[in-house]
């Protein structure tokens, strides 16, 4: 395996989280009618971090949910092994809500397509925004993030590896060359 | 009749092996055996074995009644391919061989086939129902070579005693299938940890020695000989040994599969291992192996029991019991016992030919000047693959299917005529 | 872990990690059952055949629901296995159905080894929904899932399996699974309904029910098959109830926090008192719910199992 290339550290990540929170606050949407949903495994952590900032500023509680999109993937019949499924947890009624959907990396857009389908199975939100840390700008579907911390054009055979303290013991984003 | 000479062969008899021999067959008899001489003319066997052709004390040819499984022709051809030129034919056909006419029918079919000696065993009781005894005298006149209620086992002890007593004056083989059906009924395989684990209904192994005890006790009470068919447990063997010690005229046989397989094969639910008696534990296999080496067991018999693939390729509990055995008996025993130094080739000749011939009261199976030329050419180094084209039987229900074995019957001679060629 | 199995034939063949993996997924699938729309597209376009040669409403409904929740298309084939000798063989039936391009086969059959028989001969994924007295792996898995909800640590668990052990495929699957977790298992039954050879299983045997139930965390009661009386394996229902039934009186002597389980359907008043079955200690209905989740997890995992044959 080639040496990993460090893209961001704790400082840069926390700055993006802050920007995300500001962007949410800046928007003209009714903050009281807003809910966050993060895509497992790291989008849900990002959602939580952003929510903490927004909640402090506005002094209110934002409903946060998390979704596992594996059951909605479009490649289940192609891949060799079916991935482990984690529990989706949307503990609120999302009909007519403004939803902010969080993920770590935006790549082909297929994960987001799955997430959107899954969300629709829970109800009919008024609007959905997509917030990501990094946009690899290589969408294969007509979907793009409303906010990204950084736009990076990266060759397809490379992996952007996001680590977050809550599950990985540190905040770091690295570029890994696929081992083949 | 033409003369045939084999040069440079290894003569394997039940008691000795002699290398570099030349054998001449003349008028259906073994005319001369002498040390190999390079001046002699004939077929050079390059050291391959010549041994007496085999005698099977226990087989099912399914005719009449179930010719879709086997008939006299296909079964006989399979026997010749396995090196057997004399085979005892069990009476549990449909209808059973329980009267002189049915024995005559088998003899007629034998005459049509020409190349084999069939030894029909008549039923001991009519329809093998264990109620009335059969016309044994007339069946013997028609060509029967002994009696048995094989597969049923004459359930009523009083009837069995009468049948045995009635048969005693004929001095022929009476073979008995020993199974206490009240214990074995509903069972699929031997009752043990294996049957519990496989979830298959078990048959307690004592059903066999309980039945053997009953039958040998009756025979010893009457002081008549009795042959115990296909024993499968160490307990059965011990019991028979005890009777023999007390001078009872008891003999017994074992099948190749009970010497080669134990019950642990059942974890795969392969119905080609489903048979009666069931396969037993590793220690039973060991005891039986001991028995063939120390003389406690008198014969090895195939219990050749053909069933069609579509009958066997079903859920385990619906498959019929039994496997075929003519073509694989000698090669499988040679491969797994002789080559592994667990017994000798001479001993196999004794158990597959010499002893059964004596028990069936037919010609002496020894390669010796003056004896009938019933013999086979056996190449121990040739490898065979057991597949559809190798098997001559109409059915292929054998656990050896698709497996490789050593030892090939290259020629079979019956009364001086070549009746099978394995090339 | 990477799940690589294509068939689920027994608990015996599974490793502890594989069982854990199924259960972890099953808990996630249980969440799907709580959604407003209980349907996910994971097996969209896949066809599942439920081939039931033994009647079993409960297991069939559970599998059917699991298949529907995963968006698979499923058909139920109920056939009588006793007609097999005259009619079509199991193999012919299965091959014909597979020729209609099915992806998975769920089989319930009265012969041990029937699921393995099909797995060796079909392209489809095969799930054993009970084969003779051999195994009933999905039942054991849903039982493990249910126990996990109250008792996380299987190692320090004391389990009692009560009833007709000899003829129970559920008991065999449970014993195999618990052995992998090193759980202490006790069996209780009349000697005629207990296997004679338990050498492969690390279990205790106790014929006195009052002693057996005292210190257990899980009391698993098997269904009593009334046919066994005719075969002379026990003298009368009356005596069985006195001697081996979980009565209300006995129930009052069990440990606090013990749970009562039963694979269903219950013969109320025979092996299990009705009040006990409906008590708060009983997790019998939870078992039924978890059955759907476990079967969803199995269908999902097997369909993704890589073909390494």
Describe this structure in words.
The complex is a heterotrimer of chains A (180), B (423) and C (309). Chain A contains 4 helices and 8 strands, in the order E-H-E-H-E-E-H-E-E-E-H-E. Chain A is an alpha/beta fold and 180 residues long. Chain A has a single domain (9-157), classed as Rossmann fold (3-Layer(aba) Sandwich). In chain A, strands 3-2-4-5-6 form a 5-stranded parallel β-sheet. In chain A, strands 1-8-7 form a 3-stranded antiparallel β-sheet. In chain A, strand 4 (98-106), helix 3 and strand 5 (127-135) form a beta-alpha-beta unit. The mean pLDDT of chain A is 92. With 423 residues, chain B is an alpha/beta fold. Chain B folds into 2 domains: 4-49 and 374-393 and 406-421, Roll (Urease, subunit C, domain 1), CATH 2.30.40; 52-360, Metal-dependent hydrolases (TIM Barrel, Alpha-Beta Barrel), CATH 3.20.20.140. Chain B is built from 13 helices and 18 strands. Chain B has helices spanning 72-81, 100-113, 136-142, 157-167, 181-184, 193-198, 206-222, 234-245, 256-260, 282-294, 309-312, 326-338, 345-360; strands spanning 4-12, 17-26, 29-35, 43-44, 49-52, 54-59, 84-89, 117-122, 146-148, 173-176, 189-190, 202-203, 226-228, 250-254, 299-300, 375-385, 404-414, 417-421. In chain B, the strands form 3 sheets. In chain B, strands 1, 2, 3, 4, 5, 16, 17 and 18 form an 8-stranded mixed β-sheet that branches. In chain B, a hairpin with a 4-residue loop joins strand 1 (4-12) and strand 2 (17-26). Chain B is globular and about 65 Å long. The mean pLDDT of chain B is 96. Chain C has 309 residues and is of the alpha/beta class. Chain C has helices at residues 16-32, 57-69, 90-99, 114-119, 137-148, 169-180, 209-212, 227-230, 237-244, 248-251, 274-277, 284-304; strands at 47-52, 73-78, 104-109, 125-131, 158-162, 184-188, 204-205, 218-221, 259-261. In chain C, the strands form 2 sheets. Chain C has a 5-stranded parallel β-sheet with strand order 7-6-5-8-9, with helices on one face. Chain C is globular, with a radius of gyration of 19 Å. Chain C starts with 15 loop residues before the first helix and ends in a 5-residue tail after the last helix. The model of chain C has no long low-confidence stretch (mean pLDDT 92). The chains are: A alpha/beta (180), B alpha/beta (423), C alpha/beta (309). The B-C interface holds B 191-193, 195-202, 268-269, 310, 313-318 and C 12, 81, 84-85, 89-91, 109-114, 116-117, 131-135, 169, 172, 195-200.
